[in-house]
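FYI - complex with adenosine-5'-triphosphate, inputs then prediction.
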Amino acid sequence: MEIPQCWQDVALLERAGVTRVILYGPPGMGKTFAAMGSGPAERLICTEDSTTADVTGMWQPAADGGWRWCDGPAIRAWRRGVRLVVDEVDRASGDVLSLLLAMTDSDESARWIHPHTGEVVRPAHGFSVVMTSNMEHPDELPAALRDRFPIAVAVDAPAPAAVNSLRGDLAQVAMGAGRSPSSRRISLRTLRAFDELSRHCGDVESARIIFADRANDFLDALAIGSTETRAS
Ligand SMILES: Nc1ncnc2c1ncn2[C@@H]1O[C@H](COP(=O)(O)OP(=O)(O)OP(=O)(O)O)[C@@H](O)[C@H]1O
Ligand SMILES: [Mg+2]
């Protein structure tokens, strides 16, 4: 199977040790999995309800009845010198986006002052950030945040390692067999669900349950996928 360009790029950036990257594109392609990588990482999942406390830390009740400060994932990643994964960054609230400007700034200028101890924290050597998003284009991010991430990869194909674990004809569909150029990729989660369900009730029933009014389109794509599997 030919490795899609976007995944070749992700591998190249990893090898090159690039420390600020955005992975964006449709759901279920493997962005978060790739962002987490194989080494140590801290993860911040952004939602509309996330607050700055979810990024840098908060006071939490301690067993002795008092309060204890707990660093958030961004500060933990700074201290440890590991990767920070900012997942679903486009969902972050204005406050969190503003704070991310400080947390993702170049390592030389980034610093954070502990609100209780006054300790000055800076990113340790090895700190990096990968942000993921379903946005159509990274320029949808606030300009100053986008500027901290000059490199953005449009992940428009499912991760090869995940595709390889699918049934042959499903792998072909994952790679775009039988797909009109305008139609969206089917997510790895959906393909895996189909793979599993079809073992119990066959392709037609599974397609009806999972794809509803798009079942016939999917079965057509699967037929093309199975022709291509035989051909290869
Ligand atoms: N390289 C891989 N090897 C095995 N499984 C993978 C791989 N990449 C992704 N997956 C699996 O595919 C599914 C989708 O991956 P992931 O959550 O990374 O997608 P995503 O692009 O971040 O989606 P979303 O935009 O919805 O957050 C997950 O169940 C994940 O475990
Ligand atoms: Mg994700």
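Residues 160-231 form one domain. The longest helix spans residues 188-211.
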